[in-house]
Amino acid sequence: xxxxxxxxxxxxxxxxxxxxxxxxxxxxxxxxxxxxxxxxxxxxxxxxxxxxxxxxxxxxxxxxxxxxxxxxxxxxxxxxxxxxxxxxxxxxxxxxxxxxxxxxxxxxxxxxxxxxxxxxxxxxxxxxxxxxxxxxxxxxxxxxxxxxxxxxxxxxxxxxxxxxxxxxxxxxxxxxxxxxxxxxxxxxxxxxxxxxxxxxxxxxxxxxxxxxxxxxxxxxxxxxxxxx
Length: 228
What we know:
Elements: H1 2-33, H2 40-44, H3 53-63, E1 69-74, E2 77-82, H4 87-90, H5 102-114, E3 117-118, H6 119-126, H7 132-141, E4 144-150, E5 157-161, H8 163-168, H9 180-185, E6 212-213, H10 224-227
Antiparallel strand pairs: 1-2, 3-5, 4-5, 4-6
Helix pairs in contact: 1-3, 5-7
């Protein structure tokens, strides 16, 4: 009797190991084929139901820990990235990083921390006018998106960041951006600070806020009453 039970347990363990191995191969293939990070929920749809996706991810992270590529959590999902100590080998082949002007960097930072934010609000925070081309560059890069329209005179468009922004800058979530103390510690903010100076906690929730309406047709002129 004991021998039969032991054999059954061994068979169940073997089945579980086989299911885990297959799940790892499936997730590995999906991640290598994808051009963007994949969430655990998306990955779980393709693996055997009896295999927890968290275990699969942990297994792959351990497997690839010392290899040329490693598994990272970025933009709310998972993706393979070149091992940090080998990144220099790919530098000649890598696409030249997009160079942003100071105005574009400031605009991107304001959108990231203050989203949803309108162009007028960006200009108020920066203290200078923002050229249309600056926002166009950020939109074309895929780091900024049009969110909706503010429920205010003229119904201005609101801007927010995208998952591609998180992926490019190696962030898992938007609140991984540094806060005031981290910015001070890194030397980005020096000298005496105004007592009311704060760095907002960023929030990139895709849902529209109470003061936002859907974009609608951007090419349809607004009613005179809305534009007043």
